[in-house]
């Protein structure tokens, strides 16, 4: 990563810009949300994540209006960001010189791809460009998937859709498809820097969650809270529906704020079925420790 330093925020700047994250970081300073949290994030809905973020004051983390290359797929990973601008000759030459000094190979559009590691999601701000917007086709998509194991969030069109869709698991969110090239009209201005995607602000290391109803960018320090909240909602829904099927409680009791008796019954149910629930056993144990019933 160090050879790309002239294109990035410095690691100390990234640490300064993400002060609420106290966990592990990559050498470039990006927060490294643990793999087990990313795996659990795959079960979180956009609405559940939005509720937690909105409640914490993060009101501009969701963006809709995407085309999904693999409908029904889910995209989860840590954001590696890149920002592109309309091409300007003097700045383009400057960036080429910077790239040469830090060992970048090939065209600028490949530089961020060379930086990807497993679990990353390449998030590119190409200002919503469709015609002459694609910087990604099936070849670069293959390279991205080989490096990260993930798809992309690409605020522009892509090309070679048939080839992209032939890559299993490359679930990506894009603004459309177009056969043109973007390379003659744009230039790379920065990697691993704060970017804007539609109405959202994305920081390097944010957890990307993409589903059929849009994409949400979860600040690293809130990722585990989002996951834990989603798991609690799922478990309560399971318990509530079971009780309704059995006639143990009425719809009015389940749909309202639960009484202490129902909460105590829920805790006993968690203990009795801890090995059968669709939530990691350790997460259920943590939840039980926090409950007072």
Which terms summarize this structure?
293 residues; Glucose Oxidase, domain 1; 11 strands; 2 domains; 9-stranded mixed beta sheet; 20% strand; alpha/beta; two-stranded antiparallel sheet; 38% helix
Write the layout of secondary structure elements.
Elements: H1 11-17, H2 35-41, H3 46-55, E1 62-63, E2 67-68, E3 75-86, H4 89-101, H5 111-115, E4 120-129, H6 138-148, E5 152-158, H7 161-165, E6 173-177, E7 186-191, E8 195-197, E9 200-202, E10 207-211, E11 214-218, H8 223-246, H9 251-255, H10 260-272, H11 281-290
Parallel strand pairs: 3-4, 4-5, 5-6
Antiparallel strand pairs: 1-11, 2-6, 3-7, 3-10, 8-9, 10-11
Helix pairs in contact: 2-8, 3-8
What this model shows, in words?
- With 293 residues, the chain is of the alpha/beta class.
- It has 2 domains: 2-32 and 64-218, 3-Layer(bba) Sandwich (Glucose Oxidase, domain 1); 224-290, no CATH class.
- It is built from 11 helices and 11 strands.
- It has helices at 11-17, 35-41, 46-55, 89-101, 111-115, 138-148, 161-165, 223-246, 251-255, 260-272, 281-290, and strands at residues 62-63, 67-68, 75-86, 120-129, 152-158, 173-177, 186-191, 195-197, 200-202, 207-211, 214-218.
- The strands form 2 sheets. Strands 1, 2, 3, 4, 5, 6, 7, 10 and 11 form a 9-stranded mixed sheet that branches. A two-stranded antiparallel ribbon has the order 8-9.
- A hairpin with a 2-residue loop joins strand 10 (207-211) and strand 11.
- Helix 2 packs across helix 8 and helix 3 packs across helix 8.
- The longest helix is centred in the last third of the chain and has 24 residues, at 223-246.
- It is elongated and about 70 Å long.
- The termini are far apart.
């Amino acid at each position: 990563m160090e050879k790309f330093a002239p294109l990035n925020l410095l690691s100390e700047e990234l640490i300064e810009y993400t002060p609420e994250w106290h966990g592990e970081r990559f050498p470039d300073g990006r927060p490294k949300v643990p793999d087990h949290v990313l795996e659990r994030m795959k079960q979180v809905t956009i609405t559940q994540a939005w509720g937690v973020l909105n409640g914490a004051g993060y009101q501009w983390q969701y963006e809709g209006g995407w085309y999904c290359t693999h409908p029904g797929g889910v995209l989860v990973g840590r954001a590696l960001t890149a920002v592109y601008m309309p091409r300007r000759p003097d700045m383009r030459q400057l960036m080429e010189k910077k790239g040469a000094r830090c060992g970048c190979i090939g065209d600028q559009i490949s530089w961020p791809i060379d930086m990807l590691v497993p679990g990353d999601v390449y998030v590119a701000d190409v200002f919503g460009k469709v015609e002459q917007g694609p910087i990604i086709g099936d070849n670069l998509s293959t390279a991205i998937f080989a490096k990260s194991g993930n798809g992309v969030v690409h605020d522009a069109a892509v090309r070679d859709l048939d080839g992209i869709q032939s890559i299993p698991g490359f679930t990506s969110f894009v603004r459309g498809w177009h056969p043109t090239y973007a390379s003659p009209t744009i230039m790379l201005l920065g990697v691993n820097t704060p970017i804007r995607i539609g109405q959202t602000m994305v920081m390097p290391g944010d957890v990307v969650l993409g589903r059929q109803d849009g994409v949400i960018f979860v600040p690293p320090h809130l990722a585990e809270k989002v996951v834990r909240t989603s798991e609690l909602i799922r478990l309560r829904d399971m318990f509530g529906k079971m009780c309704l099927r059995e006639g143990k409680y009425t719809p009015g009791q389940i749909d309202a704020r639960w009484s202490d008796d129902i909460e105590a019954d829920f805790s006993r149910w968690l203990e009795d079925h801890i090995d059968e629930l669709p939530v990691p056993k350790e997460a259920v144990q943590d939840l039980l420790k926090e409950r007072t019933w």
